[in-house]
Design brief:
By secondary structure, the chain is mainly α. 38% of the residues lie in helices and 0% in strands.
């Protein structure tokens, strides 16, 4: 829906372990880190919720830009 409305899609596989950079090198390097350098669980959850809210808003904008659903019973499938 986002592509149909002309909206750019973020890198959906950005957290995949198999992700590689444009030059083909591994995107992630596994190494030990200090636990005090890590974000808190609460911070991670809050960031995830904010990102999900942003995605939902973008999806709703894309639906409006794309216009009415041409499929059968399209009005009955919409959720207010």
């Amino acid at each position: 829906m986002l592509e149909a409305a002309g909206m750019a899609i973020d890198d959906a596989d950005r957290y995949a372990a198999s992700s590689v950079r444009e030059d083909g090198t591994a995107r992630y390097v596994w190494q030990s880190v200090k636990t005090e350098d890590l974000p808190s669980y609460t911070g991670i959850i809050a960031r995830s919720i904010a990102e999900r809210n942003q995605w939902r808003a973008e999806y709703e904008q894309a639906k409006q830009r794309a216009g009415p659903d041409p499929g059968p019973n399209s009005a009955s499938r919409r959720v207010a």
